[in-house]
Amino acid sequence: MSAGLIYAVTGAALFSLGLYGLIVHAHLVRKILAFNIMGSGTFLVLVGLAQRADNMDPVPHALVLTGIVVAVSATAFALILARRLYAASGRCALPGEEER
Amino acid sequence: MMPRVLIGVLAAALGALLVWTMLGLPAPSGRLPALVAARMGESGVTHDVTAVLLNFRGYDTLLEIGVLLLAVLGVLAVRLAAADTGGTLPPPPGALLRAFTNLVVPLMVLVAGYLLWAGAHRPGGAFQAGAVLAAAGVLLRLSGRLPALLPPRFWLRAGLLLGFAVFLGVALGMTVIGGALLEYPEPRAGAWITLIETALTISIGLILISLFVGAPAPGGARGETDA
């Protein structure tokens, strides 16, 4: 098992951990965090699979670089929406899901 | 709602499926890296990731700065009205934070400039440089000195737009003079990429700072008690 494959497998584990958190937790900040963990797992898979061969593939690396910036800005937007929802409704969970 | 155990088992099964798929993947064909390596001479830069980002797949980067712009527009649109009027600033910083900020912020600006320049031939580039600039802005904001340093609203908005506008302008300008969208005239490709990256750095730094500053201060929505 090459080092790149170990990163990719770790990424898959992070992805399913994040998916579990996303479904189980009702609190929106926890959901956003879990979604970010899923995203980090995806990035790890891409970067890991890109360097299985001897010559590193630069295209997935560039995609991940793009993805990180998009993830950061989308997270900021999601956090603002969560704050806004809390200010408007007093709760930080989606309707139909009770906070635990 | 499904019990947690079942969700956990399903998520673990999905993870196992992913791992199993990855283990069974064929060896990388190596076509893309070879293509990138073959065309490096035309890209205007000597670092392969930068060449992919700004030249071979410039479309991704153009759309990315567009997404950043959309996110900051969304944040500016839905943030609470009393977001950052100066009354919500954190308490005055201690002497240590003040001295640390004085020491570190000029250094961070310098590092951002270096990363921007280094992107042409080694890991670095606009996004890393913009992130360092944004970190300097966050530090200034936490020490309560950012609002005084920010330009007037019009110039701030113009700075947010600068990277996207320059990138789009260069891309469209190429089609006007007969090239393809996102193509650079060959002997000057490096200069165009540097111009775009400089504009991108400024915009990314400002956008990330705005995303941070746009958040309402902790006092605004108090007492989130649930876990």
The CA-CA distance between the termini of chain B, in Å, is: 19 Å
What kind of sheet is the major sheet of chain A?
none
| Integer tally of domains of chain A | 1
Helix content of chain B: 55-70%
List keywords for this structure.
heterodimer, A: 100 residues, mainly alpha, Helix Hairpins, 3 helices, 77% helix, B: 227 residues, 9 helices, 0% strand, disordered C terminus
Q: What would your notes on this structure say?
A:
The complex is a heterodimer of chains A (100) and B (227). Chain A is mostly helical and 100 residues long. Chain A has helices spanning 3-24, 28-50, 58-89. In chain A, α1 runs antiparallel to α2 (28-50) and α2 (28-50) runs antiparallel to α3 (58-89). In chain A, 38% of the residues are buried. The mean pLDDT of chain A is 87. Chain B is mostly helical and 227 residues long. Chain B has a domain at 47-77 and 97-215. In chain B, α2 packs across α3 and α6 (126-142) packs parallel to α9.
Short description:
Chain A has 100 residues and is mainly α.
Q: Any chance you could write out the topology, listing elements then pairs?
A:
The complex is a heterodimer of chains A (100) and B (227).
Chain A: H1 3-24, H2 28-50, H3 58-89
Chain B: H1 4-23, H2 31-43, H3 48-56, H4 58-78, H5 95-118, H6 126-142, H7 146-149, H8 153-176, H9 189-213
Helix pairs in contact in B: 2-3, 3-4, 4-8, 4-9, 5-6, 6-9, 8-9
